[in-house]
């Protein structure tokens, strides 16, 4: 196709699919051929600590799939390894760009990045258009009657359900417009090695979440049961459509599974309205807590060597697979921030490094919930007892035996690094002092 032909660029980011993709749909209807683009952002990749970070391999695999899918329509995916500013500077030289379309991203870095790209494009009279795609409701779509954001989940959830109409679940019919793709052959993919990474041999969950919806409510709290869909990774990178997920849950009349999707949107809304919460307590008084931050105990927690089998099983599952059962996430987070009095931000950053399904909003929200410093209405003296949690949710020790096999021989298993009763009292005093 002639290089002087005006093109619309569609910038794939957290939406790695051709079907039911809002921004791609609007790009395909823009009147210009659509040139698909993905940027391996040096700014983001440069922050990752591990050469074999499994998320990079997952994205790389999905980019290869996306290229193949576009090839069947005689198009391709231009893949650039650099900063977005450099990528667009070069694209502006190589193509006559009418507009750049993409989908919203809500994290603070993404907002700053998009602002810079918008400014760059504006200098060349190129439109930058973004669309809602990874949530059903965003930003200020579900707010109080006075227009202020909700800061407690339950009333937000109730308003979310009230607002939901079939319109919001309707899929975008992208397939009808794929003939409008730009016909070209892209340059070769940059290799993982070029970008400073090695291929991970991690196993990634499938997208087949439907079979988990019906009995999710009764199975979701038991880590030894395969009762959860592990869909978080696919939601994180947009390899499934949130509209399809919500539609399937709605059809099944399964509100518990749907409510987990709503929690995700709630935390995204909170991060949008209160961006400081990415590294400051939502309730500012909680930043006065005198954390102990014992580095040896933090290492024991990271390594799954605390002497509390449910905590240790969770951490070993995380370190081995990049996943941790949600019930166990709450237990290990509470143990770190309350039993050990280690700053929740230490745990949040460790999860950010290890979790395949890491999303800043949900991770920060979950950690602040556990520490008592977040939006949750429960008082700070909610402190999980890791032993009673074990008896309740892994009574046969099936989960523990899988991840902590030496627990069967207590002579080989470490003694608890802290006494829970002592730690609970110490935590209550520290929190009370900080909040008084």
TrEMBL record:
Listed GO biological process terms: nucleobase-containing compound metabolic process; response to light stimulus; response to stress
Site residues, Electron transfer via tryptophanyl radical: 291, 344, 367
Tree of life domain: Bacteria
Residues annotated for FAD binding in this entry: 216, 257, 260-267
Pfam families: DNA_photolyase (PF00875), FAD_binding_7 (PF03441)
Alphabetical keyword list: Chromophore, FAD, Flavoprotein, Lyase
PANTHER family in the cross-refs: CRYPTOCHROME, CRYPTOCHROME CIRCADIAN CLOCK 5 ISOFORM X1
Sequence similarity: Belongs to the DNA photolyase family.
Name of the featured protein: Deoxyribodipyrimidine photo-lyase
Native organism: Mucilaginibacter gilvus
